Amino acid sequence: MSNFDILVVGGGHAGIEAAYLASQFDLNVGIITLPGVGLASAPCNPSIGGVGKGQVVREIDALGGITGKLADMAGIQFRVLNESKGYAVQSTRVQIDKEKYSEFAEELISEINNITIIREKVIAIEFEDNQYSVRGECSTWNSKKIIMTVGTFLNGKLHTGSTTTEGGRSDTESSNSLASFFSSIKTVSARFKTGTPARLNKDSIDYAVMTEQPSDSTVRNFHCLNTYNTRNLKQISCYLTRTNETTMEIIRENKEKSPMFNGQIKGVGARYCPSIEDKAYRYPDKNIHHVFVEPEGLDLNTVYPSGISSSLPEEVQVDFLRSITGLEKCHVEQYGYAVEYDVIDTTQLNYKLELESMPGLFFAGQVNGTSGYEEAAGQGLIAGINASLDILERDSFILNRNSSYIGVMIEDLISNTRDEPYRLFTARNENRLSVREDNAVLRMYPYRTSLYLNDAIDHYNDVFVNVFEALIESIEKNVVKPGDRFLVDNKIKIAKRSTVSELLKMSSLDPIKTLEDYLVFIGLDVPREISRCIAITTKYSGYIEKASQHYEKIRSLDKKKVDWSRLVSSENISFECKQRIEKIKPETFGQLKLIDGLRPATLAVVAGM
Ligand SMILES: Cc1cc2nc3c(=O)[nH]c(=O)nc-3n(C[C@H](O)[C@H](O)[C@H](O)COP(=O)(O)OP(=O)(O)OC[C@H]3O[C@@H](n4cnc5c(N)ncnc54)[C@H](O)[C@@H]3O)c2cc1C
To answer: 3-state DSSP call for residue 457?
Structure first.
């Protein structure tokens, strides 16, 4: 029998992040995970980052986690999403080689001396003699702390048409044997559901009729210590095609065969990750939906058609797939399916992600009702750090929701019983002008410093913060005047003397390029990610100030009367929020604030009315 300080059950995205962080505190850490399932494997979309999620990956990176590092190593296409929108909502997205991502994770974790990887199924967990005893099919281990990260495996059940099998994902078993352990923990009454599309043979597709989306060589890597835009692997393109009237007709004609709509699946799916059946039946007038054809890896023969996850019978999947431009001759390598699984009620957890009623037992990832690799990794990091700090009898590590997406997610999770899978997006954050990708190091700096780990990440963060502070102060003072060579060379017209910071706020100028040009002009060599952060922070400073006043106003508005009927007809409030408001019909702002699932951005709209 081995003794561990921390045992992580599950080697997915939450599990490896938890174990990696815990190992930094020189503790004896174990990961117990199912045989045959690679570490950090990607059962769904082969990508890391995206809207709201890119911010999380940068936060994880600034706090010393590994998701960003792995994404850079396995990245085969880099893009910035929302590039035409404001900087606050721009997010990096990396298409990954899913096989290599998992291999790199295995390599990186195996090299850490104080992490032991155990491939065995956990069948029971008990608490006795002030420690946890974890029983696998062959062995038993003791540990001071447990971090449960079992993803979609709790009573997992897979559906394709009328065929159902037990499992956490295709070709794996489920975690039914943990039922007695979970009987003492409240699970959400509704089961949750997620799904995945068919995988297609990459040589059976006509790419010539689709729109190519090449990798952007200028995109900054996720990991701060990697050179700005170098790439580890060969870069390849994704392709865009669309569904059409025939596609959607086929799906609509087969509604009674859809497990999601014929009553076979009872679980609730993620509203913001709808299957193609959801799109067909819920929006009967809409036939054109984007389908992104994404490679799954350099050496894999499959592509992932994003946007059309389905659990329809196999023959119906083939029919609708072959109606899509470019997919007429596609060959299916693996059919799409849906998985139903149990999740715990996260209102039982505290900010450390520890179960209040069973100290020392932490939960992170999809078992907490979230969806997505990044959300899982962010929670794993919080649980891993806090389990370690508890053992070391140090203060807890709690991220504030005003300064991080991870903080928003954790507060949302522990404040409400989730009634559907939770995923992050920028509208969940009331402070999104200040909580951006570019300033993740600044935002995470005080938190990371409080860990006293003092490694290369801390050195990088110190330099970032020091240069940022010195330069932002100097551009407030440094002046440019009409006729200055820098302005003439860059064809910038100004009417009077201005500080550089005033110049960056001019609406006609790109603040990032202007600051870069200015720095070249004065001969100062500043890392691009720092000058970018300074330019955006300066550009937004007025709005940020206003936004924080607005936020303070929200806090004092509880007594304000609200006209709920006006809210449900407002164009600025999402459909989901309108549905929830209409159900409760709140009379005051205070009542409105308590409605489950109402987004902070909606409250901000109401406060401004
Ligand atoms: C079919 C499917 C579709 C998905 N679709 C999407 C999507 O469209 N968008 C999206 O963002 N996310 C999607 N996801 C979710 C995404 O895969 C997860 O959010 C992410 O992997 C969660 O990470 P995790 O670490 O919580 O769990 P996982 O990555 O699932 O890892 C769980 C780990 O627990 C281990 N485990 C389970 N039970 C035991 C046990 N008893 N003993 C030992 N080890 C155990 C498993 O081996 C596994 O390593 C999908 C997942 C599936 C399965």
So the answer is: helix
- Strand ranges inside 137-265, DSSP E: 140-148, 157-160, 163-166, 192-196, 199-201, 211-213, 238-242
Is the CB of residue 511 less than 8 Å from the CB of residue 505?
A: yes
DSSP 538: H
Rounded distance, CA 401 to CA 593, Å?
16
What ranges do the domains of the chain cover?
454-552, 556-607
Give 370 Cα–ligand 1 centroid separation in angstroms: 10
Flag whether the pTM goes above 0.85.
yes
Classify residue 489 by burial, with Cβ atoms within 10 Å: 0-12, 13-18, 19+: exposed
Distance between CA atoms of 234 and 213, rounded to whole angstroms? 15
Q: What gap in Å lies between CA 397 and CA 399, rounded to an integer?
A: 7
Q: Are 329 and 202 in contact (CB under 8 A)?
A: no
Which of 54, 57, 66 is closest to 93 using CA atoms? 54
- Architecture, CATH, for domain 454-552: Orthogonal Bundle (1.10)
What are the pocket residues of ligand 1 if the criterion is a CB atom closer than 6 Å to any ligand atom? 9-15, 32-34, 37, 43-45, 121-122, 149-153, 168-169, 175, 178, 194-196, 273, 339, 365-366, 371-373, 376
Q: Is 557 helix (H, G, I), strand (E, B) or coil?
A: coil
Over range 495-520, report the average pLDDT: 93
Confidence of residue 555 (pLDDT cuts 50, 70, 90): low
Q: How many CB atoms lie within 10 A of CB 545?
A: 11
**Strand partners for 363:** 148
The CATH class given to the 556-607 domain equals mainly alpha
The Cα–Cα gap between 161 and 407 comes to 39
Residues 74-102: what's their mean pLDDT? 94
What are the C-alpha distances in Å from 304 to residues 53, 168, 236, 289, 336? Answer: 20, 19, 14, 15, 10
Question: Hey, what are 337's tokens?
Answer: 């399916």
Instruction: Name which residue sits closest to atom 41 of ligand 1, judged by CA.
Output: 122
Ligand 1 centre to CA of 472 (Å) is 43
